Amino acid sequence: MANRKKSVCALAAFLSIASAHASNDTEMALDIAKKNACLGCHAVSKKIVGPSYQDVALRYRNNPQAIAFLKNKIRNGGVGSWGVVPMPANSKLSDSDLTLLTQWILHGAPSPN
What is the distance between the alpha carbons of residues 89 and 67, in angstroms, rounded to a whole number? Predict the structure, then answer.
């Protein structure tokens, strides 16, 4: 029974740390989106100029190449995936920022809580 209590406590500690890490990643991704004017054209749940982040997540949810594809699209910009309005390039973002931002988008751009 003592081992079971230790296991439960260890699991609770792990989940607490994982939750804090996820929340921090969410805050960082939102900050990247704000600092790079992404929110001028995209919103979480509604189309502005570009698609909502939730629509992007829905479209690419079963695509194993989604992270690489979206990182490339964000870095280089483009046109045609969602209509005729071009998306400007964000070539100054680091690879780690692109990964964090893309993962956040593919999770439906959750709000930090």
Answer: 16
